[in-house]
Specification:
This protein is mainly α. The protein contains 3 helices and 2 strands.
């Protein structure tokens, strides 16, 4: 049995998904501190969402990404990009505008 101050006691189980069921990206992205340091990954894969952004920044197409990351399809990519677009729009339209990370 773990001691009350054991940090492992507060960790979610290895299979836990920290994306709540009512979140728009539930089933699209999964997050678990025990998997890839808690990086948001495309659901059912170990492919971090950040890889998509890095690929696009590097001049690659979405089709290149899909071809090079088995298990990731166009549908979750579109959902992630749509969510990012909505978040950006909401941040910029807030009154007063919400601070934007550097």
């Amino acid at each position: 049995m773990s001691a009350p101050d054991d940090p492992k006691q507060n960790r979610p189980p290895p299979s836990a998904d920290l994306v709540p069921p009512d979140h728009p990206l539930h089933g699209v992205v999964w997050v678990n501190p025990e998997r890839l340091g808690g990086a948001p990954c495309f659901h059912g894969t170990r492919v971090p969402v950040k890889n998509l952004y890095d690929y696009l920044r590097g001049g690659h197409s979405i089709e290149d990404f899909v071809d090079n990351f088995p298990g990731v399809t166009r549908e979750p990519i579109d959902a992630v990009l749509e969510f990012a677009d909505r978040q950006l729009t909401e941040t910029l339209r807030a009154d007063p505008p919400l601070p934007f990370p550097p």
